[in-house]
Structure formats: structure tokens, C-alpha cells
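Bit of a strange request maybe. I'm writing a small parser for C-alpha cell strings and I need a real example to test against, not something I typed by hand. Could someone generate the C-alpha cells for this chain?
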Amino acid sequence: MSEYLAQLNQDRIKDKNKKKTKTKSGITQPDTKITDVEFMIIGFIAMSSDACDWIGLDLLLFHMIDLITSGILGLWCLMRLRQFPTTRFGGTLLIELIPGLGDLSPTWTIFIFSLYVKQKGLAQLTK
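Reply from user aminoacidic:
Good idea to test on real output. This should exercise your parser:
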């Protein structure tokens, strides 16, 4: 009988330890750690595209700069983040393709900044 109680107590301790480890992992971190230098390079690409919008170069080239930027940032998101922020990316591309609004708003820079904030955990973004 005492062996049975000892085994039962050990099982209870194991169950308590399992419950404790499950509650500690409330916030999950992404699989890849993206460095600040990488964000600076991608941010430079986004700011360059937005600067071309501001000076009107993008309208002269029929939005080719925005399409190339969307390709670069889309591939980067797929390769490095291992998940694609579809809603934010689609909204950004849609705003960039609207004449006038896309030329004035720095949407690619805001997109990269929002990814940076989410990656670094500086603000809790709701899903």
C-alpha cells in the first residue's frame, strides 16, 4: 500500500509540474530572430520606395517601383518571418496603388515599422 501511495504522489508532482510549464508559455516568440540591421536594410528599401512616391517618380513609371517593392518585401516576409501578414500587406499594396493617396502616404515604411514593433514585442498587437 505504501508503494502505491508513493507512486501516486510522484504522479501528482509530475502533473503539477506539467501544468506549471504550460501556463508559463503564454507569449510565443517567432521562430526566427530578425536583427536590427536586417530591419534597417528592409526599412531603407521601404523608405526609398516611399520617397520615389513623394517626388512623383512612381507615377511616371506606372507604379513599377511599388510592384518591385511589394515583391521584395513579400519574399522577405515569406523567407524570414515564415508567415505572411496577408491583411497588412494587401492593405498596404492597395493603398500604394491608389493615385494620390499612395503617393502621399508612407505605407511601406509603416508596414515595416509595424512588423518591427510586433517582432520586438514593443506593443501588444491583437490578432
